[in-house]
Here is the input.
Amino acid sequence: MSLYPSRITEYDERAPTANETETATFALGCFWGPDATFGAVDGVVRTRVGYAGGTKADPTYHALGDHSEAVQVDYDSTELDYSDLVAIAFENHDPRSQPRKRQYQNVVFYGSDAERDAVETHLRESDWPEDAVDTRVERLSGFHLAEDYHQKFHLSSTPSLFSPFEEAGYDDDEIRESPAAAKVNAHTAGNDVAAFEDALSYDPRQ
Here is the structure.
C-alpha cells in the first residue's frame, strides 16, 4: 500500500462524523489485536484503545488498577448492528477461559438494555453451555484513553505508512481518531482492507 497525504485527508473528510456513529466497547486481551481486527470491518469508522471495567479514576498502562485493556469502536449503524460487533468479538477470543491477569480479561461492555439483550441473545443462540462462558458482560461505566504510543500501534510501527499522516499535518489525537488510520492500522496487522486500499492509495498526481 502506498499512501498520499491528500488521499488520507479526503478519506477522513468523507467519513461519518462522531454524531453520525454509534460506539461499542470490548476488552479482549491485549488491545493492539482487537484494534486492528475491528478496524478492518466494513462499517467501522474509528477505533481507539484504552482502559475500562475498573474503579481507578485515572488508570495508566503502568498503574492500571482494576481496569482491563479495551478497544472502543465507532460504527455506522446503517451498515452494521451492535449484534454484528458482538459476534466478531466472540469469534476473536475464547469465551470459555478468563486470563488471571485483570489487565487482559475478556469483557463485553454494553451501554443500554438493548445492547445487553443483544449480548444475551448471542450467547443463548451460541453452542456454548451457559455455565461454560467466563467472558463477563458488564455495563460500561467509563472509558479511559490509553497513552498515545498504544494508539494505532501497528501503523505507528510502520514508518512508511505512518509518515504520510505526519505529512498531512495530523497530530496524535487526529491519528487516533482518523478513519483512514483505523483502516491502515488494520492493513499493517495483516487484515484484509482491500475495499479501502484503492481509495487510500490512488496517486492524486496521476
Q: What stands out?
A: The longest helix spans residues 113-125.
